[in-house]
Amino acid sequence: MISIAWAPLYAHPLPANHRFPMLKYELLPEQLLREGIVAESAFFSPSSPPAEDVLRVHDSEYYHRLRAGELTRQEERATGFPWSPALIARETCILGGTLECARRALQYGVALNIAGGTHHAFRDRGEGFCLLNDQAAAAAYLLAHPELGVGRVLIVDLDVHQGNGTARIFQQETRVFTFSMHGARNYPHRKEQSDLDLALPDGTDDAAYLRQLHTTLPRLLDQHQPDFVFYLSGVDVLATDKLGHLALTRDGCRRRDEYVLGLCHAHSLPVVVCMGGGYSPRIADIVDAHANTFRVAANLWG
Q1: pLDDT per residue over 214-238, tens digit each?
Q2: Which residues form the Histone deacetylase domain (predicted)?
Q3: The pTM is what?
Q4: Can you give the residue range of the structural domain that contains 115?
Q5: Domains held by the chain: number
């Protein structure tokens, strides 16, 4: 059984110049239902979390100013979004969705957030269309509740951009291992230090990408011995992506998902999947590549 976080807030409201990349949040649930990958009952509507669940990974001053609309113009520009109450409702809802996914993954084995993967959000600031770090907040939530049985977390970030905010937040936290495999010359230009960074050259294709992943991920599972996995499955690794600069096919991206989720399933590791980025000029390429992640999860956990 798979469980999926989605709310209309994920897609609305945003300025007109941001509408195209956000269409996937409307179209992906429709695609999953139309194909019969999941039933409507698989979806749940998340809510905003209590402040304490946000403040484990974000400074209280930043969170207050963010909610009150008190960011400076420079801070607002760094996020890429003009501030509005609706934007804050959207971002907190996404974070709440990943938190609830973590609880559901402990019960069902897997849960997926149609949005999320806001890995450029730092403890005290937002960057790169990320205001609050949802996977970091959910990982900290699990560790803060020892009755849940999660003592070690692995974050597998396969978005084409380095998870700089996540890396910085957990820099001193030995219970969380951050692994980012990303484009070497892509955003952010100033990288942070994850526990393991694999920086890939432009034009990396399916074979080279999957070889790196197959060599690395089993070793991390053996060495870190996680109790829980967060997977950021960005599809901006596609050759068609206008921002990615890598050269994966949709089949290669699907095989990536099969490998990561297959290892989690084989090791009985609960996993939360967040969609991350995707900026191909054809919205169909983005939606189908994201849908592959759900197809894989449905085949494994049914």
Answers
A1: 999 999 999 999 999 999 999 999 9
A2: 22-291
A3: 0.96
A4: 3-301
A5: 1
